[in-house]
UniProtKB/TrEMBL annotation:
Alphabetized InterPro entries for the sequence: BRCT_dom, BRCT_dom_sf
Domain of life, per lineage: Eukaryota
Bias type Polar residues, positions: 41-53, 66-80
Organism: Rotaria sordida
Name of the protein: BRCT domain-containing protein
Residues of the BRCT domain: 134-199, 225-321
Compositional bias annotation for Basic and acidic residues: 9-18
Positions of region (Disordered): 1-20, 34-97
């Protein structure tokens, strides 16, 4: 009872003496003073009915009063503070952490394949933010193209092989990359390194990675300076994979370093590209049975396409008819 009377008397004195504007601060001091007085006169033992002042569950966050007479919320814990820092503070300096593209912005020419609508919106934002970057004419893949953007939203760094992917693969300098690359460039306001975003495969095939500054002897898939066999191609298929025309197929063959066969060429292996379900295969074989080539293979177009995409000559017997 004496403690309660003393507590009440001390509170009345403080409320009469201190202006109301600072009342929150004085009430805090009053509580602290009361607690100290009770500690002096109360045994420190703890029971189920008493509060242990040393237990963390009983700690009350300190309330602060600012000069505007508004009460601030309790200070965040160290974990909360670190989360807020990650959310609101900028990343480390780009100059020390960001790897930049090997291409300057004014040398980048972009083509696309299988992009979704929202990804196209991102492309337009990217072009506004980096006006030096160009789109390829009609979005075609050609020798000026440097980047082919792919949708990999279903599975990261994976895609379905399209005609443009094959055309880009035949040109070793072209980056075949996820459209997430441009999203990251926009976020960092920098043309960043493409390598972490390169498409690695489809469901069956590992894609080749782009090569910059390669030596000439490694430029071509067929008939480079280290080749032991000379390849030639003949086209007997009407259309490759339903989308690649004869002229496009000829271009792919030439990009690999091989040539269309004619009687003047001296070759070791002739690859004759045929349709998958070729009904006139015997007639095609009769056409080539008298030519002076030691080894002739009749294969489906996938032999050429898979070799290009992987940049590795495939086992020709697996594709033979």
């Amino acid at each position: 009872m004496n403690h309660q009377k003393n507590h009440q008397k001390l509170q009345e004195q403080v409320e009469h003496q201190v202006p109301r504007k600072s009342q929150a601060l004085c009430r805090r001091h009053l509580l602290e003073a009361s607690a100290q007085e009770l500690e002096k006169n109360t045994p420190s033992t703890t029971t189920n009915d008493t509060i242990n002042p040393n237990h963390e569950d009983n700690i009350v966050p300190e309330i602060d009063v600012n000069h505007n007479n508004t009460v601030t919320s309790p200070q965040p814990t160290s974990i909360e503070h670190s989360i807020k820092k990650r959310k609101y503070e900028p990343q480390t300096s780009p100059s020390t952490t960001i790897n930049r593209s090997v291409f300057p912005a004014n040398k980048i020419v972009i083509s696309t394949t299988t992009l979704l609508d929202h990804q196209w919106t991102t492309v337009l934002t990217f072009l506004r933010q980096f006006p030096q970057v160009q789109l390829a004419t009609n979005l075609n893949v050609n020798n000026f193209t440097t980047h082919l953007l792919i949708d990999d939203s279903e599975k990261l760094l994976h895609c379905t092989i399209t005609k443009k992917i094959v055309q880009a693969s035949a040109r070793r300098h072209i980056f075949i990359i996820s459209s997430r690359w441009i999203t990251e460039c926009i976020h960092l306001n920098e043309i960043i390194d493409e390598h972490p975003f390169e498409i690695t495969s489809d469901s069956h095939t590992t894609l080749r990675l782009s090569v910059q500054n390669f030596q000439n002897n490694h430029k071509y898939l067929f008939n480079n300076s280290s080749s032991t066999l000379i390849y030639g191609f003949a086209i007997e298929c009407r259309q490759c994979q339903g989308s690649i025309s004869r002229n496009e197929l000829i271009e792919l063959i030439e990009l690999t370093g091989a040539k269309l066969y004619d009687n003047e060429n001296s070759i070791d292996i002739l690859i004759v590209l045929c349709d998958t379900n070729e009904k006139n295969l015997n007639k095609i074989k009769e056409k080539y049975c008298h030519i002076n080539v030691p080894n002739i293979k009749y294969v489906i177009c996938d032999f050429l396409l898979k070799s290009i995409v992987k940049f590795e000559i495939q086992d020709v017997d697996k594709y033979s008819l």
